[in-house]
Design a protein that fits this description.
The structure holds two protein chains of two kinds. Chain A is α/β, with parallel strands linked by helices. Chain A is built from seven helices and seven strands; from the N terminus they run E-E-E-H-E-H-E-H-H-H-E-H-E-H. A four-stranded parallel beta sheet of chain A has the order 3-7-6-5, with helices on both faces. Chain A is globular. By secondary structure, chain B is an all-alpha fold. The N and C termini of chain B lie far apart (about 35 Å). The longest helix of chain B is centred in the middle third of the chain and has 31 residues. The chains are: A alpha/beta, B mainly alpha. Chains A and B meet through helix 1, helix 2, helix 3 and helix 4 of A and helix 1 and helix 3 of B.
């Protein structure tokens, strides 16, 4: 991200963000507030287009090639969303269909990932496993909890991790928990 | 190595969440048909088209926010083009109104007798409700005045189709097709620009 900003109706919700993340690197990025952290995470995953500045994921600009960016990035939201799928397998099959992955293979991979996420609440573990089944090169986490840090690092393996946080303190806590740079 | 189609996954997952509401609307449609028991086929056609349009608008507007938030984020994060997602989401209110109107026409067929039914009003009520649903979907990715404009536009489409129905049935069907096609394209383009932030 080079000077990436986000505006809505004249109001600047995200001031200029400058972030660089190498392949396989981990970064806990502190934002001004929680809303900015959520938007920066979405910008990094190609869900939201920056109003100003530039964002590149790999060699792709989300404003021009959002689909290519989404193939590289996996996004895990912060909110504990109500999971209304009847089972974990159904949820994974749904995600596999959206990412055009083989279903049976994805379910096996997801079960393996979820086994390594012992102790993480399912409202966070399920989306994390769902994001990792597509084997993304970049994992974008919207305000992850510091206590889950070590398990996330283990599950992500060689994948680059970019996490956004609502304050410097939260970013520092996450980086201490899993030894990533702030 | 079986990969399910993304369109069917989106449509059927959303429809599953709507199953209860679809059944309620189908029951209301059946009750409405029973209340029209002594009416002629013209009144049935008009009633089905207007009820189906209202049901379609309701199903379309319920496609965004609330219980759909989790699915929205998943769909937005998936490597899919907006037009694919738009087609999948458009299927949901269309299937919903087809089920609801099936309830309406089954009750009409039982009460009036199958000989008094004709294929044209049944088909037109279905196409009218589907076209109105697709136009109303445009309101879900807009806010404020533009949202109200799209809801109004869906109402205008329904009224125009009903007014065209009797003198010009082919014209009414053609209008349904054009309105649905333009509505779907508009929805796809708006969905591509829509930010979940």
């Amino acid at each position: 991200m080079r000077g990436a900003t986000f505006r809505r109706g004249g109001e600047v919700l995200v001031t200029a963000q400058n972030v660089q993340l190498a392949q396989g690197d981990h970064l806990a990025h502190a934002c001004e507030n929680n809303r900015a952290a959520a938007i920066v995470a979405m910008m990094a995953a190609g869900l939201v287009r920056a109003s100003g500045g530039a964002v590149y994921v790999g060699a792709f600009d989300p404003r021009i090639q959002p689909v290519h960016v989404k193939r590289l990035a996996g996004y895990v939201p912060h909110d504990a969303l109500p999971n209304e799928f009847a089972s974990f397998e159904q949820y994974i099959e749904y995600r596999a269909a959206l990412w055009q992955l083989p279903q049976a293979e994805s379910v096996v991979r997801a079960r393996h990932i979820i086994a390594g996420l012992d102790g993480i609440h399912e409202s966070f573990a399920y989306p994390l496993a769902g994001a990792l089944i597509a084997q993304p090169r970049l994992l974008v986490l919207d305000r992850p909890q510091a206590v889950y840090g070590p398990q996330i690092i283990d599950a992500a393996k060689t994948c680059a991790i970019f996490s956004t946080h609502g304050s410097e303190n939260e970013a520092a806590r996450f980086s201490q928990a899993c030894a990533v740079r702030v | 190595m079986i990969a399910r189609s993304a369109v069917s996954a989106i449509a059927f997952t959303r429809l599953q969440r709507f199953a209860g509401q679809v059944l309620y609307v189908a029951a209301a449609a059946a009750l409405f048909a029973a209340l029209q028991m002594h009416s002629d086929l013209g009144a049935h056609a008009l009633g089905a088209a207007l009820f189906g349009s209202l049901a379609g608008m309701y199903f379309a507007l319920a496609q965004r926010g609330g219980r759909m938030r989790e699915l929205e984020l998943c769909e937005k994060a998936a490597p899919l083009y907006a037009r694919e997602v738009a087609r999948a989401i458009a299927l949901v209110p269309c299937l919903g109104v087809v089920i609801a109107l099936a309830g309406y026409w089954i009750v009409t067929g039982i009460s009036s007798g199958p000989r008094d039914l004709a294929a044209a009003p049944v088909f037109l009520s279905l196409t009218c409700a589907c076209a109105v649903s697709v136009v109303a979907l445009g309101a879900t990715v807009r806010a404020g005045v533009w949202q109200a404009v799209y809801i109004l536009l869906a109402g205008v489409v329904a009224t125009t189709i009903v007014l065209l129905e009797y003198p010009q049935l082919p014209a009414a069907l053609l209008f349904c097709g054009i309105a649905g096609f333009i509505g779907l394209r508009q929805y796809g383009e708006a969905l591509a620009r829509w930010d979940p932030a």
